[in-house]
Amino acid sequence: MSAGEGRRDGLTDGWVRAGLVAAVVIGAFAEVGTPHRHYGWLVDAFALAAVGVVGAAAALGAEAAATPARQRDRAAREPRPEREPRPHATAPVCRFVAAPAVPTAQPGRPRPFLRERPTDLSVPRFGEGARAQGYPWLLPDRTVQNGIAADEATVGALTIRAASVVGPGHRCGQPAEPRQDSYRIGRSTDSRYAIVAVADGLSSAAWSDVGATAASSQAVTLLREQIETVGFDRIDVKALYRRIAESIAAHAAERKVGTSHLATVLITAVIAEPDANGVARAWVGWLGDSSAWTLDPRVPRWQFSAGEAKDRAAAVVSNEVVGRLPDTPHLAVDQYVTLAAGAALALVTDGIGDAWADPTGNVNEYFANAWRAPVPATRFTADVGYDAPQCLDDRTAVVVWNGRGK
Predict the structure, then answer these.
(1) Under 8 Å CB-to-CB from 137, ≥6 apart: which residues?
(2) How many angstroms separate the CA atoms of 184 and 164, rounded?
(3) What φ, ψ does residue 267 adopt, rounded to 5°?
(4) Is the pLDDT of residue 383 over 70?
(5) Do residues 329 and 238 make contact, with C-beta atoms less than 8 angstroms apart?
(6) What phi, psi does 180 have (nearest 5°)?
(7) pLDDT of residue 20
(8) What is the torsion angle, in degrees rounded to the nearest 10, for the CA atoms of residue 41, residue 44, residue 49 and residue 54?
(9) What is the per-residue pLDDT across 9-41, written as a single tens digit (0 to 9) for each?
(10) Residues 6+ apart with CB under 8 A from 155
């Protein structure tokens, strides 16, 4: 019953009681006003007593009827919990609550080891992308370097962006593999030269991430020494790579493994401050299949400049490298290149270089437009983590712009 119905019923009862009292009072006064021959005083007393009794009964009945109505109104006004259902009029006041049922054992269902996730919208995607790009990132069995590394810096009039991301094919297996790429950036003491080293550990080497890290770190240190002792124009690539190989071999000896377990390729560069015409010269030395590329901001395409170019005209593109550290440092070669004002030099591992060299896709064109001028390190890192079919290797890029951009 609703509160409105309760109020209507109480009102009806009140009118009935009022009418009854009025009738009794009128009747009593009529009786008192009528002269009686015998026992008139007694009749008057009984009439007045009847009026009192009827009035008291009416008052008590009205209070008793009003109490439930007030309770119902108060209950209706009180706020109920948001999710508490209102009780139905026919629902019993007390309910029997059964104990919760014991869940029955369900047969286990096999769970897939790898689960795809929505493609990360922050990274550029080419074609259908790689399926491994959507798999969860797993950790290697041993402590290794971070899966992602990034930097941004300025050295004089030069602007640097760097990023390295573990490849989709390395991070989703069981066990996962470490990021086998490594880079280091530095400068000369007088900030007239920017120094870059990018190493790519061989997948076949168990400790290649250690070899790549040692190679890139030692390369920047030794190049700084050469610049300060013999000068920018007399950098000795053979002596440089020989000393780097000795450092990697020492790491192998500490771990009591053969030098082949730390095998890596390496590409290095020293970029001088621009001259009065705004032109900057760069020295590039390399061993293995990492590569250097240049970009003219007026031409939307990265051009291969230095490194070990792969024969993409062959029926099968081979990933075998001719030289590697620490075993064949004598195979290292070098050359000088020039950068016009606004131009850029990129040192990349084959995780990016192979995609840029592929004439069938638009990866090179995208990166030429995206990196026409310096971008924030976060944007740069997202680009390095691009998603493309069959591009599963680690990818590393260090780009040096001749100028600070807009």
Answers:
(1) 147, 166, 171, 172, 176
(2) 10
(3) -130, 140
(4) yes
(5) yes
(6) -95, -5
(7) 57
(8) 170
(9) 444 455 655 665 565 556 555 555 655 555 555
(10) 187, 191, 193, 194
- Neighbouring-strand partners of residue 201: 264
Query: In the Cβ-directed half-sphere of 16, how many Cα atoms lie within 13 Å?
Result: 10
Token reading at 257: 């493994």
| Calpha distance 185→177 (Å, rounded) | 24
* DSSP H or E run through 20: helix 3-33
The total number of residues written for the chain in this structure:
406
Whole-Å CA distances, 295 to 158, 193, 341, 344:
15, 20, 11, 5
Q: Tell me how far apart the alpha carbons of residues 200 and 198 are, in angstroms, rounded to a whole number.
A: 7
Q: Token pair for residue 305?
A: 């400049």
| First-to-last C-alpha distance (Å) of the chain | 76
Contact between 197 and 183 under an 8 Å Cβ cutoff? The reply is: yes
- Which residue do the tokens 């969860």 mark? 136
Of the CA atoms within 13 Å of residue 182, those in its CB half-sphere come to: 28
**Contact (Cβ atoms closer than 8 angstroms) between residue 363 and residue 386:** yes
* Spatial contact of 399 and 160, defined as CB atoms under 8 Å apart: yes
Is the pLDDT reported for residue 8 higher than 60?
no
Radius of gyration of the chain (CA): 45
**Cβ pair 227, 238 in contact under 8 A:** no
How far is it, in rounded angstroms, from Cα 167 to Cα 180? 9
- Is-contact 347 283, C-beta < 8 A? no
H or E element: which one contains 214? helix 208-229
What SS3 string covers 84-130? CCCCCCCCCCCCCCCCCCCCCCCCCCCCCCCCCCCCCCCCCECCCCC
- pLDDT band, residue 59 (cuts 50/70/90): low
Strand 193-201 and strand 158-165: the pairing is unpaired
Nearest-CA neighbor of 20 among 63, 50, 49? 50
Mean pLDDT of 101-111: 48
